[in-house]
Task: structure prediction
Amino acid sequence: MNIGCHVSIAQGIFNAPQRAADLGAECFQIFTRSPQGGKAPALTPELLTEYKIQNTKYYIQNTYIHTPYYINFASANNRIRYGSVSVVRDELERASLLGARYVMTHLGSAGELSEEDATKKTFEMLIKTLDGYIGSAELLLENAAGSGKIIGSTFSQIAEIIKNVNHPKLNGICMDTQHSFASGYDWRDFENTLKKIDSEIGLEKIKLIHANDSLTELASRKDRHTHIGQGLIGEQAFKKIVAFAQEKNIDMILETEHDEVVADIELLKSFRTK
Result:
């Protein structure tokens, strides 16, 4: 398994591999467009060639793409829902061109809809997103921290959505350690938490891990990342999470601030067994 972090594509996506390597990353995550909105920069043949050259040059093992923040498959607003379908489908197509393994997305918030109606809207929109899609990149659903009427804060709800979508390119999750902790999954009680996740969705559905410690307490419903060992999940829990990821060959991506992400990467690497 590989350990990496989120990096910027400023001044060109082909700069991401060197940025990742400079931080000690073996894999990395990017946005291929502004996460706040706007048109996605074109992926020309020349740019794609240079990107792949740089990935090889810097020994990057895997690339992952995160969808923009504004995705909301559960919105009562048709424009927002169908806009989300368009953007996520485009990200899958772009990921396939780039040779990325996975695109991960949050699902959105129910807003004025009931949880049942919002969940139904979500899998209906995901079915539209994947209709006719034959690219190489697969879609992962990321668990949320649980604030408000957010969709996907429990693994059982995500499992229901994946089952209803029933598409070969949607068969897994990106598990965020901080979001799950904020939603009541206590990584300090490691074995019981693994059993709970296994019973809700199946451990085999975990395809990627976002490794983030938590500034806020268990079941806080707040999305507040911090550096590994500086939060309430703690180093001992992350040693067990890394061992699990290594056993299952699951890459880990840090989403902590770059001021100390090098230390985070080195710490997680030190938890690996040879």
Q: What stands out?
A: The domain at 3-271 is CATH 3.20.20.150 (TIM Barrel). Residues 78-98 form the longest helix (21 residues). The chain has nine helices and ten strands. The CA atoms of residues 37 and 262 lie 29 Å apart.
